[in-house]
Design brief:
Elements: H1 3-68, H2 70-76, H3 84-101, H4 111-132, H5 139-151, H6 156-169
Helix pairs in contact: 1-6, 3-4, 4-5, 4-6
Length: 172
């Protein structure tokens, strides 16, 4: 083969290789685009089914946080005896029962949101326990102490509620 033949062969191969490379590039681009479109349609269809369930989970957790907010809890749960520690345990049991009733909702929320809800629950229990350590001896005085501890600061439930509202607004 002479140099002229090799040059002529190269002249025929170059356009074929360029055409093949361009076709491969466009085929790969088209395939990626189709995959993205399919993924979007699947996500859109699943979102139609899961969004109401997720919103319902957030609603239930908002209700939980409202029910364990200090003001609501102390007003709703009246002492059943004259024993201060029995009332303290009753309040904590109410919080724990409410929380256990809503445990399954965590699968519809982000980990950060669920951790904030758990922190609000634990902080509320801590407020009740610290008020229970006071020198008061009646449940009514314990109620006052609990309410006095939360007068100056925002309740843990309010902080968690604000986070839930922010997270739900990001769903739209």
């Amino acid at each position: 083969m002479s140099g002229d033949d090799i040059f002529q062969l190269f002249g025929f191969l170059l356009p074929a290789v360029v055409t093949g490379a361009v076709a491969f590039y466009f085929f790969r681009l088209h395939t990626r685009n189709e995959d993205g479109r399919r993924r979007f349609l699947l996500h859109k269809d699943s979102q139609k089914d899961t969004l109401p369930i997720r919103l319902q989970a957030y609603e239930r957790m908002v209700l939980f946080l409202e029910r364990i907010s200090i003001n609501s809890l102390v007003v709703r749960v009246a002492p059943t005896s004259k024993d201060k520690s029995a009332y303290e345990n009753l309040l904590i049991k109410q919080i724990e029962t409410e929380f256990e009733h809503n445990l399954s909702q965590q699968i519809y929320m982000s980990d950060e949101c669920w951790n904030i809800i758990k922190a609000a629950k634990n902080a509320t229990i801590q407020i009740i326990r610290s008020a229970g350590m006071s020198e008061t001896d009646s449940p009514d005085k314990l109620r006052e102490d609990i309410l006095n501890q939360t007068i100056d600061k925002q309740s843990p439930s309010a902080t968690a509620l604000a986070f839930i509202k922010k997270e739900v607004s990001e769903l739209w």
